[in-house]
Amino acid sequence: MGRAVVKALAADGLRVIGLDLRPAKNCLACDISDPAAVAQAVRRIGRVDVLVNNAGILSNNKAEATTPEEWHRVLAANLDGAFYLSRLLIPGMKKRRWGRIVNTCSLAAKTGGLTAGTAYSTSKGALTSLTFSLARELAPFGVTVNGISPAYVNTPMVTRQLTAAQRRAARAQIPVGRFCEPEEFAHVVRFLVHPLAGFITGEIVDLNGGVIMD
Q1: 44-55 core/surface letters (b: 16 or more CB in 10 A; e: else)
Q2: Is residue 48 a contact partner of residue 94, using CB atoms and an 8 Å limit?
Q3: Are 117 and 60 in contact (CB under 8 A)?
Q4: pLDDT number for residue 113
Q5: The whole model's pTM is what?
Q6: DSSP-derived 3-state class of residue 206
Q7: What whole-number percentage of the chain has pLDDT above 70?
Q8: Nearest of 28, 154, 51, 155 to residue 104 by alpha carbon
Q9: CA dist., res. 30 & res. 13, Å (int)
């Protein structure tokens, strides 16, 4: 999903820099669960007009099987990193009176996790609330904050971390009969960060093939 977003935004003329645990082309090494590492990366990058908080890890363990260590690890990756990056980049966006923040939320926040576990579902619910909080805070400064709530994107998180039976059961619940493609997710990001999307903020865009219709 992150790779698809990088390609899409670069094609639109944006200078894109990614953060990952391992360095790569146009990508800095950074553990986003570490606030000091995030601060160092932000200093190296400099000005940022568009922030896409997409990093995340999956846990399928339900409450009784979730250890305290796993709980903290999942929330640190899925929630804390988005907060650390946002809080450091917000001042510049406010000063320029323009910015875009897009958070990768999840269908699990609404359903409690069809297959996802307790820690993952909770982290995405909290990320949704963070989206609302930042959107209300930053709206007067020309900065929009929105989320995308996908269901079962065709990535290793689904293809490797769910069994074949789980994947079949998940597809059976999706009215369009397939999983989302990363490029479809990236297309929604492109829409939300466009200058003409400035009247949309505090919105969670469902990208679930009709699993939930509201």
Answers
A1: eeeebebbbbbb
A2: no
A3: yes
A4: 84
A5: 0.94
A6: strand
A7: 100
A8: 51
A9: 24
Closest residue by Cα to residue 170 from 204, 214, 209: 209
For the chain, helix (H) and strand (E) counts, in that order, are 9, 6
pLDDT of residue 158 exceeding 80, the answer is no
CA–CA dist 126, 144 (Å, integer) = 18
Query: Which of 120, 152, 179, 185 is the catalytic position?
Result: 120
Give me the torsion for CA of 165, 167, 169, 172, rounded to 10°: -140
Q: Measure CA 49 to chain center.
A: 17
Considering just the CA atoms, what is the radius of gyration of the chain in Å?
A: 17
Q: Around Cβ 194, how many Cβ atoms within 10 Å?
A: 12
Cα separation of 186 and 153, whole Å?
11
152 flagged as catalytic: no
Tokens 């007067």: give the residue: 140
CA dihedral 145, 148, 154, 156 (to 10 degrees): 50
What the block records as the tokens of 69 is 């260590």
In sequence order, which residues have a C-beta less than 8 Å from that of residue 104 and are 6 or more positions away? 1, 52, 53, 54, 56, 127, 147, 148, 150, 185
Provide the pLDDT for residue 23.
Answer: 81
Supply 59's token pair: 């846990």
Q: Phi and psi (nearest 5°) for 189?
A: -60, -45
Dist. CA 42–CA 85, nearest whole Å: 8
Q: Which of 182, 200, 197, 198 is nearest to 8 (CA)?
A: 182
The pair of structure tokens assigned to 167 is 């994947």
